[in-house]
Amino acid sequence: MRENQEIPWLPVGVDDAPSWMVRGVADRCLAGREGNANGGNPLMHDHGKSDRPVLPAKLPNKPGEPGAEAVEGRGLPEGSTASETRPGRGAGLNVSSDLDRVRQVARKDRDVRFTALLHHVTVDRLREAYRALRPDAAAGVDGVTWRDYGSDLEENLRDLHARVQRGAYRARPTRRVFIPKADGRLRPLGIAVLEDKVLQRAVVEVLNAVYEQDFLGFSYGFRPGRNHYGGQGVDALIARGSLPTAETGGIEYQLRRSPADRLVVAVKLLLAGVGVERRGRLTRNVHFEQPRRQPREEAKMNKPKPKDKPFVIPKQLVWKAYRRVAANKGAPGVDGQALEEFEADLEGNLYKIWNRMSSGSYFPPPVRAVEIPKPHSPGTRVLGVPTVADRIAQTAAAMFLEPLVEPRFHDDSYGYRPGRSQLDALEACRRRCWKYDWIIDLDVQKFFDTVPWDLTVRAVTAVTDCRWVLLYVKRWLAAPLQHPDGTLVERDKGTPQGSAISPVLANLFMHFAFDRWMAREFPGCPFERYADDAVVHCKSRRQAELVLAGIAARMQEVGLRLHPDKTRIVHCRDSNRWEEHEHISFTFLGFAFRAREAINGKTGQHFSSFLPAISPEALKAKSDRLRELRIHRQTNLSLDDLAEWLNPIIAGWMNYYGRYYRSAVEPLLRRVSTYLRRWAGKKYKRLRTYARFKRWWAGILEREPGLFAHWQWIRSY
After folding, report:
1. In 351-362, which positions are buried (b, 16+ CB within 10 angstroms) versus exposed (e)?
2. CA atoms within 13 A on the CB side of 412
3. Residue 550 dihedral angles phi and psi, to the nearest 5°
C-alpha cells in the first residue's frame, strides 16, 4: 500500500521547511508529489477528505476479446481515458488527438517504451487540469487557493508551461495534515500547492493514456475507474515496465530504494522529441528489497557525499539550528541585522550559510561586545553577540556536538546542559552540605576570557574527528571582538561568553580539565559545577586544604587561575556543627548558603540548619531592576496591562529564588505591591487617600485574586 510520505531528509514535523532544502530531490523530479488518479484531486482538502472518486468504466483485460472478469460500470469511450467527474463541471481531462498515436502504439506493442512525452504537456492540457480541480480544495504551503491562481490564469499557465519545457520547474514542499480513520487512528495526508496539483494532473493524464490499458484486470490500486483513490503517473510507470536507459538516448532513471522515498521517484518523465524504443522488464532496473539495518560506522561511510563539497553538512541541521535561534530571539550583531530582517530572505540566507559551510569558505564576522548586568549580583559583564547568520552556524555545530559530548559529561556538571538546570545543582549542593562539614567555594577568574585555544581544540578532537567542526571551532575562537566605538580587538585566548558554541566548548574544556581530574584524584569529594562556578564537598578542614591546593595547581596546569578573593574554604555551621572558622557562608548561583532558623516538622522545635536563600547581592540586583521598571509611572496602562507585563518577570523570580526559604523573597514581592499602590494614586485621584485605596485593593483581591502572580504568596502593600 502506498502512503503519503515526506522526503526523508526533510526535518521531521517541520511543515514550513524552505524549498532550498528539497532541491536535491526536486532537481531530479518533474513533480515530486503523489496524488489521486485521473479525475480526482491529486491531494487532499482542508476538511480532511480526499476528492470524490471518479469511476469511469473498467476496460476488459484484453481489448477486442471477452473480459476475463465482469466489467464494472459504463463502457469507456474509444480514444479517451477520462470520465465524468461531477455535474456542472468539465468531465475530467479529454485526451486529445495528439495522444491517439501514443495509445495506438502502446496497444499494438506491449514492449514499446516511450521516451518523448514532454510536448504533450501543453498550456491547453494545463488549463483543463486547473478547471478539473475543486475550487474549495485546501491550499498548500504557499497559501494560494484555486481562485487566487485563477485571477491571472493564462499568465500563470504560460509561466508554468515555460518552466516545465526548459526544465526549470521545481516542486514545492507538501503540507502535512492528518485525518481520522474509521478505526479512530489518524491517516497522514499531503496537500500540494495548487501549481503542483495542476501539473501532476496533466502528467497523470498523459501517462494514463499510455499505461492504463496495459494493467491486468485484477489490479485495482491507483487506477481510474477502480474503487481506491490516489495514484499518479509514477504508479503507472512502476507497474508497467522498466525505465529508459542512457543507451537509447534517454536519461537513466532509477527508483530510490528507501520505502519513505517511493513517493519521490527520481525520474524525468518527459523528454524533448518523438521516438519509441523497446521496453524491458522493471525488475532489471529496480530493486524493492527492504534495506538491511547498517551499523552506525558503516552507515556513516556509505552516506552519499556531494562531489563538489568538501564537507557533508545536512541541510536539515542548518534548518533546525535556525529554528532554535528563532525561538531564542536575541540582539543583532555587528551587521545590525535583526532576526526579522534575516527572515525576509530566509531561504536565500539559510542556503548561503549551508553552501559556505559545506564548501569550507565560511568565515565568521567579528563579535559585538555588549555589557549586561550580572544576573545574581551588581556589576556588569561583557558578552559577545554574533550576527544572526553566525549564531545559526554556531548552533548547527553545537547541535552536532551535543549528542557526542552529553554521554561523556560528569553527572555533577549542570551548566548549559539539556534536562539540567541551576535548581538541580542547588538541590544537590543543599543535600551534600548536610552530609559534609566543609566545602570549597571555587571561582575561575575570567574563565571565558582566558581559556586556552589549543586545549579547547584538543578537547573537541577527543570527541570527534569531523573536519568541518574542527575547522569552524578554530575560526570562531579567533573571531575578533568589536567594541561599541568600532575598535576591533584581536584575541589569542578565550571564547566570547554569549555565543552559541561557547557553552559546549566551556563544558567540554572543564570536563577534561576539572571533572575527570577530580573523579580520578579525589573520588571521595563530590562537587557541583555550573560552567566555571563549582562547589567541592570535604569531610574535614585538612582535606579541604589539600584538595584546594591540588585544584589550584591543576588550574595553573591548564592555563587558568582561581580567583584569589572568591575562592575559599567554608565551614557548614549549624546547630550540630559548631567550629570556629573565618568563613561560614558562601554564595552559589544567586543563593547564600548559611545557618538559618528552621522548624522540626514533627516536634515543632526551632533549630539552626545550613540552608540556601536568595543572596543579598541577588536581592539588591532584583530590587534595582524593579526600580528601573518605573511601575508607578506607567499610568497609560490599565491594571490588566500591568499584570500582563509584570507577571512573567515576577513569576520568574518566584520560581527561582522562591524555591528555597521563600520568606527571604517576600520583601521583594511586597515592593511590587507598593509600586502598584503608587501607580493607582497617580492614575486615579480618588485613590490617593488610604481608606479609599484600601477598599479598592480589597475589591480587586476579591474579584480577581490571581491577577498578579505575587498575590499567591503575599497580598499586603
Report:
1. bebbbebbeeeb
2. 20
3. -65, -40
Q: What angle do CA 703, 708, 713 make, to 5 degrees?
A: 100
DSSP state, residue 546? H
* 82-to-16, 128, 225, 247, 412 alpha-carbon distances in Å: 35, 12, 9, 34, 70
Residue that has been written with the C-alpha cell 521517484 in this structure: 265
Give me the residue label for grid cell 502598584. Answer: 676
pTM above 0.85, yes or no: no
Q: How far apart are CA 230 and CA 211, in angstroms?
A: 16
Q: What are the helix and strand counts (H, E) for the chain?
A: 23, 15
Query: Pairing mode, if any, of strands 481-482 and 367-373?
Result: parallel
264 CA to centre of own chain: 23
Angle, helices 346-359 vs 315-328, to 10°: value is 130
Q: Please state whether 330 falls in left (phi above 0), alpha (psi between -120 and 50) or beta.
A: left
For helices 123-132 and 194-211, the axis angle rounded to 10 degrees is 110
Q: Is 189 exposed, middle or buried (0-12, 13-18, 19+ CB in 10 A)?
A: buried
Q: Which pLDDT tens digit goes with each residue over 469-528?
A: 999 999 999 999 888 888 888 888 888 888 889 999 999 999 999 999 999 999 999 999
Give CA–CA dist 608/48, Å, rounded: 65
Give the CB-side neighbour count of residue 326, counting CA atoms within 13 A.
12
d(CA 715, CA 717): 7
* Residue 460 C-alpha from the chain's centroid: 24
The residue ranking higher by pLDDT, 5 or 343, is: 343
Determine the Cα–Cα distance for residues 462 and 456; give it in Å rounded to an integer: 10
What integer is the mean pLDDT of 524-542? Answer: 94
Residue 307: how many CB atoms within 10 A of its CB?
5
Coil/strand/helix, residue 246: helix
Element (H, E) at 382: strand 380-385
Half-sphere exposure of 479 (CA within 13 A, CB side): 31
Dist CA 550 CA 569 (whole Å): 14
**DSSP E strand stretches across 539-679:** 568-571, 586-588, 591-599, 606-614
Measured CA to CA, the distance from residue 117 to residue 197 in angstroms comes to 19
pLDDT reported for residue 40? 43
- Over residues 312-342, the pLDDT tens digits come to 999 999 999 999 999 988 888 989 899 999 9
In angstroms, the CA 218 to CA 45 distance is 30
Q: Which residues, in sequence order, are bridge partners of residue 175?
A: 191
Whole-angstrom distance, CA of residue 449 vs CA of residue 576: 42
DSSP three-state, residue 684: coil
Which set of grid coordinates corresponds to residue 165? 519545457
What digits encode the pLDDT tens for the residues 644-682? Answer: 999 999 999 999 999 999 999 999 999 999 999 999 999
* Reduced DSSP (H G I as helix, E B as strand, rest coil) percent helix, strand, coil of the chain, to 5: 45, 10, 45
At 543, the amino acid letter reads: Q
Place of cell 556538571: 413
Work out whether the CA dihedral 43, 49, 54, 58 comes out positive or negative.
positive
Q: Are 380 and 372 in contact (CB under 8 A)?
A: yes
* 416 neighbors 510 (Cβ within 8 angstroms): no
> Quick one: cell of 107?
496497444
